[in-house]
Structure formats: structure tokens, C-alpha cells
Amino acid sequence: MLKVKAGDLNKMGLLFERYHRELFGFLYHMSSNPDASEDMVQTVFYRMLKYRHTFTGEGSFRTWMYHLARNVVIDSAQQHKRSARHHDVADYAERIGGGPMADEPLQKEQELAMLEKALARLSAEHREVLVMSRYQELKYEEIARILSCTEGAVKVRVHRAMNELKKIYLNSEYNR
Amino acid sequence: MSTTDKSIACESARLSLPGWLTDELSITDRAALDAHLAQCPDCRAELVASQQLWQQLKAVPTPAPGPAMRTRFYAMLDTFEATEPVAPPTIWARLRSWVPPMGSGGVGPRLAYGLLLLGVGVGIGYWLPNGRSADIAYQQQIDTLSVQMQEMREMMMLSLLENPSATERLRAVSYTKDIGEADSRVVEALLTTLNNDPNVNVRLVTLEALAERAHDPRVREGLVQSLTRQESPLMQVALADVMVKLQEKRSLKPLRQMLRQEGINDLVKTKLEKTIRELS
């Protein structure tokens, strides 16, 4: 990234190749919408280019990337606040067709869909720590750097997020 | 263990559960948690539930991004590169990539390097004045533009001064603040307004605008001459004030002339006498 900052914009291609999947994964689990996530990946990389001078090289590139990505998620959430729609599981079922899920029993599939919906109903604050920890496999230390808080605060947040998720998920199971 | 102690111990154990799931507990925390779990069935059940949920979460699939995303990214990168001015470091990086890495060879390669650097220096010498001339051209363009702006303001002001509406004329006078060095047309127009405008407010504002340009000898002279032409007591007093402010000794003669005028307002008379005292 420091090379990009110094003017070698071609190096951005390398960064894209290395990180776009991870970034897409984060944005997908934050938005539950693959199309919007692709748009957001594009926006994050655009902002990296535009604001490359703000990358100091002190923290890691990954931390900086998540900083930008979180802002893009917030911006996009504000934009779609009124027309908020949760992406339906059926929408992406074709996209992941052939994946490990295809052969699994229907019930399991429904459970996962419900869990995903429960995740989508979490507050953004709780959702992001779970996504970072579970899907992005970031350590608490890294999450703390991204969120600019202490590791202890991250632990408490993950704990609360898990409790909230359990509550929502179990409720939806009972109401099935 | 009392109930309170137990609930505190449970609370602390549950806070450690996420760390247990991600295997991020320190050895001491882990030992403490294990010890607590061994004797607390509630927390054990909680751990099992959390573990199940945690595993299920991982099973939620993440779709792969579509192939169009890569295409869009590279298109964006190209557009960005095309619109961004090439930063100097790129030139440096290119230069470095042209120059083969310095080997441990003898004098030959070093001499070649020396000559190359000399060439680069001469090149930069040729290149720099070009940069400066571009700057000069840019500056000239800006100068031309600001001159044109000034002319436009003057034109607008002059035509507005002719407007029958007093409000418009007031606006015209206020424009003069934006005009830097006024040319003689503007000064003349302002003096004419000062002496002949039917509206006393317009005349007062004009006087204010002219007082700000009193460093111009034409303006000073016009102001002195205007003294005997003003009939409104308001204008006479305001002009007298300006004369004191400018310490304009040439105004003494017209001021005395005004005092001799018949039917002069008593207040104005006192003011004029005071002004004459202050100036002489």
C-alpha cells in the first residue's frame, strides 16, 4: 500500500487480488446482499485510491481496509435506511449452487437461513464483531484496533452479541 | 459459596466463553474457566449452547463475488489513473526501473552511472524552466480573468447607478467595495452621485464609499468641492466629519463659506464651527 501511496497505482491491483474476497465476505455478512456488497467492495477500493495519502503505514493495511469498509457500510446503511430490505436467502441460493449446502438436508438449510436472518437482525455494533471474529477470523486484538477500543471492550461486545443472537434465533425457532 | 458469589463467578465465566470459542484465552483465564465449569452445570450448558451456535454460524455460506467485480475494479483503476495527475514519485520509480541495479563491477559501470546522472541533471535543468513557464502562463490567465471580473463589476455598477430605484443605486454603491483600484470613470460616477442624487441615503452611502478611497487625490478634491453643494443638514454634518477624519485643511475655506450661508441649520452651524476649530 505504501507503494500505491507513493504513486504506483498499479500495485492496487495486487491488493485487490489479495483482499477482495475477504472484503466481500465481510460486506456480505454485514449487508446480506451480494449485489450491494460488490458495489461496496468497489467503493472501498475507490476510497483506498482516493484517500491513499491517509494510510500512514503505522497500522496494518488490513486494519485500514476494515476502517474504510466499516465507513462504507455505515454510509450505505444510511442511504438505504428507508428502503431497507433484507436479502432473501432464495436470491443467492443459485449463486452458491453446487456448494457444500446443495447436498444437505432441507431442514439444515432452513436452520442456516434462519440463523442468517437472526444475524441480520442484530444491531450493527453486535453484528460486526461477530462477523469479524467468526467469518473474518480476526483476533480480538485486531478487532480492537479496527474499532479503536480495548480488547476487553471487544470481548464484552462479542459476549453480548452472542447472547442477543441466541435470543433472536431461539425465538424464531419457537415461532416456526 | 453464596448466591452472589456464584452469580459473579458465572458472569465472569460467561464473559470468557467467546474467548474460549476462538481459542484466545490466556492460560490463567482458561484454567479459571475450566475450574468454574467443572463445578457449575449451568455454565457448562451455556458453553455447549454457545459452541453449537458458533459452529452453526460458520456453516452459514458466503457466496463468491461475481466475475464482473474484477472487471469493474480494473476499469475503475484505469479511469482513476487516467484522471489522476502522475505524481513525481512515479517518475522516480520509472527512472529507477530503467536503471539496471548497480553491480559490484569495476570503474566502467560506475562511470556510466555518473554520466547517466549528469544526463538526468541536464535533463531536469531543461525541464524545470518549462514547468515555471507553465506556472507563469497559468498566473497570466488568472490575472486576465480577474481584470475581466473587475471590468464587469465596474460596468454593472455604472449602469446600476443610473437606475431610477434608490435601492438599486444603493446596491451599485456597495459594489464599489469589491472593485479594487477604481478607474476615473468610477470615481467620477460616484462624485456625480454624491452631488446630484435625489435620495439622501444614496448620497450618504456614496460619501462613505468615497471616504474609503480618500487616498486618491481626485476623490479628496471632489469631497472638498462637494461641501458647498450639499443642502441637506445630514450630508453637511457627515461631510464635515469626513473632513476632520481626513484632516483636510483645504476644506476650511468652503466650510467658512457655508457658515456665511443664509438659513443654515443651527445644529449644522455648531458642528461646522467645531470642525473649523479642529482643523485650524
From TrEMBL, chain A:
Transmembrane segments: none annotated. It comes from the Bacteria. GO terms for molecular function: DNA binding; sigma factor activity. Residues 114-165 form the RNA polymerase sigma factor 70 region 4 type domain. Keywords: DNA-binding, Sigma factor, Transcription, Transcription regulation. Residues 15-82 form the RNA polymerase sigma-70 region domain. GO terms for biological process: DNA-templated transcription initiation. InterPro entries: RNA_pol_sigma-70-like (IPR039425), RNA_pol_sigma-70_dom (IPR014284), RNA_pol_sigma70_r2 (IPR007627), RNA_pol_sigma70_r4_t2 (IPR013249), RNA_pol_sigma_r2 (IPR013325), RNA_pol_sigma_r3/r4-like (IPR013324), WH-like_DNA-bd_sf (IPR036388). SUPFAM superfamilies: Sigma2 domain of RNA polymerase sigma factors, Sigma3 and sigma4 domains of RNA polymerase sigma factors. PANTHER family: ECF RNA POLYMERASE SIGMA FACTOR SIGL, RNA POLYMERASE ECF-TYPE SIGMA FACTO. NCBIfam families: sigma70-ECF. Belongs to the sigma-70 factor family. ECF subfamily. This is RNA polymerase sigma factor. It comes from Spirosoma sordidisoli.
